[in-house]
Fold:
Amino acid sequence: MLWETRSVFEDQVAAVEEASKRRGKEHIDLSLLLDGLSSEREQGITIDVAYRYMSTERRSFIIADTPGHEQYTRNMVTGMSTSDLAVLLVDARKGLLTQTKRHATLAALLGVRHIVLAVNKMDLVEWDRATYDSIVSDFVEFAGKLRLSEVMPIPVSALTGGNVTEREESTPWYQGPTLLGHLNTVHLGSTQNHVDLRFPVQTVIRPDLDFRGYAGSVASGTVRVGDAVAVLPSGQQSTVSRIVTYDGDLSEAGPDSAVTLCLADEIDVSRGDVLVRVNNRPELRRRFDAMLCWMDEEALEVGKRYRLRHGTREVWATVESLNYELDVNTLSRADSTTLEINGIGRATLRASGDLPLDTYQRNRRMGAFILIDPVSNMTACAGMVRRTVSQSEESARQKSPGVVMESTGVALDSRIEAFGHGPAVVWLTGLSGSGKSTVARHLERRLLEEGVRAVRLDGDILRHGLNGDLGFSAEDRRENIRRVGEMAKVLHDQGIVAICSFISPYRVDRNRVRSLVPEGAFIEVHIDCPVEVCAERDTKGLWAKAMAGEIENFTGVSAPYEAPSEPEIRIDTTSTPADTGAGILLEAILARIR
Amino acid sequence: MSHLDALEAEAIHIMREVAAQFENPVMLYSVGKDSSVMVRIAQKAFFPGKIPFPLMHIDTGYKFQEMIEFRDKFCEEQGLDLIVEQNTEWVGKAHPDELGTDRCCHLLKTTGLLDALAKHGFDAAFGGARRDEEKSRAKERVLSFRDAEGQWDPKAQRPEIWTLYNTHKKSGETVRVFPISNWTEADVWEYIERENIPVVPLYFARSLPVVEQNGVLVPSPDGEERMCRFRSLGCSPCTGAVESDVVDLAGIREELAEAKFSERQNRVIDHNAEASMEQKKREGYF
Structure:
């Protein structure tokens, strides 16, 4: 293709010819054009990424030629990090090999969504359609597991040039474009994020007292004069007053534009800050999950401090835990304690300061970071943010590594609009027999009468099914509440009011559930009733058995109950009937969710 | 965003990253077309401020007179802060005909550069080298780290991922920065035309006395007059001209579209050995 588009000069070819002869080759070895380092030419392999340039009348191309061997995965990751499209070469004689699957996996991981599957050496299989079709169907089946928005298979012969730039006469059954034709016309719309304005400040330009501008490149979205913006992480707000360039002021600037912004107010902005639109902010997080591609000879050390660079910001960060290592050949996941060079895995990281993070899937610029070894200064790792973790979620999910969090299909905002109310988690805690379930049932009915989407989760019911494997030890009680809390969160995230009635004797467990949902969404209700009254009521006959020593770990008898110190609402069931209590709760809930 | 706009934005981004994070950067200025482009990009990167670092020319004493005249006029007109340094021990003494191209280059350019960087304490040096110029440059990073002796180790290069440039270095180490790595010769000329950037007149054809050596036209007072121009500019003993009647930028663009040979074809220094540029870089050459 380089040759056909006149991107290789005759003196360069002459030099390659001479070098080929010197190596005792009969034919000119065109790989020597790209293998620019003497060690590469000595060993006859590509080690490092080479960049070549090609232009047609329609487009200009930067070609990152990367090695295919597994031991150079990091070089392929480097080449793909800035690519819009990947051309994967398959040898028609050999079929779909592991190597091509690995390359497709890396492309998906790095967000290269456009793939060309160039089935090469078709001339050596007599341009056989069945051979081609079988390779393509194998690939499509594999690629179905990956996030690739487009796969374009093309039967080619690099040697004869068939279907590279000119249509091949032997493939009347192939109706698609030539390789170059496709590259010239493929639409690459999905590569940039045009929605979320993120402007990482590189440097402050202050030539004199009258001018103060913030220089940077628009990482995503579009900035316009008059935009109300916030400075992250400080949160200060102002308005964009000018977009300055050497060639004159602009009214707006899109992704990758290198501009200088002036703000209407004198606020503190410096290198490392990110300007965003006031009503479209990334999550400010110091803990997050990410896919890591390890690039350094020195393996990943969990707990070690690395420098983390995100946008123009640098902080300290440690890898807290490695959730799994990904086998890029098979997509299988395995437990691991480290990543060696070229290893890829998912980890939880903790940074020393808040970072304005987007997920890599949504924003290729602001979901990407590198880790730098503080001693050797080597770039140790390329990281891609998968999900941000709120401080509250810190403890919970350690036992289910490898589960990729997917956001729900319909945004919560849309649900709130459709339902006419917001979500909540109403948590009723109290001793056995205090009246939790009764109040909860009344409340459920009253909410439904008001048109509120409400779901009731009850301890006794869940313990017969979902939590049937759990007993009443402190550990099992904790797990019981953890599961319920997660369920409540799922319901909350879908706009539902979850009414949860559980003894939930431990404060720490209840607080963990509280932290799973946004502040204000968790309503803790203490169904208050003294031990004696509960024991006297003894609706299920449990207290008698417990007091007789027939039930172990019975809350209030042989296990502790930690009453809420500051519940949102307290209902004393010795003096308040259940339907009255439910009425009090109804008012309080409606006031919050409407 | 057009192809040229994207290349310009990338170069501005790199210059700002380096200027913001290194203590004492400098821009190497070789008077050629790539240097002219680099200056314009620096002006854009820091506008309306001035370029926050000086320019430095390592003068080998073998630069064409027209280059020196252009340099002084250009820097004055553009209000640039120019430092000129020489390896005074060897300027006027070293000559490629006696020492060989490699040795001469090492003394006048490489040693001259390393001494000047050390003298001024520069920790980052911008250069206008491009990856399409030469095969080892195609493999070099945008931020190319050099040890205390200025040496390049192509096997120990840091991966450059996304636009996240790792600027960490140990004391004594320096970095060479190539903001227009991804530009081609055609991009450079298209940009010069678009931005109306002044360049040395030697790029345009005139009648010169030359002698032909290995297909290269070398200027010589005893030669025969031929219409020719320089496609790239280096030291006069080692830079050849090419036959051409092109007198303006549009002509250069057309000539390039039909070019069969690369722009370094007339640069004698690259031909000595298959890996000569890589070897020079390993020794500290730009």
Observations:
- The helical segments of chain B are 3-21, 33-46, 65-78, 96-99, 101-120, 185-195, 249-257, 276-282.
- Residues 201-270 of chain B form one domain.
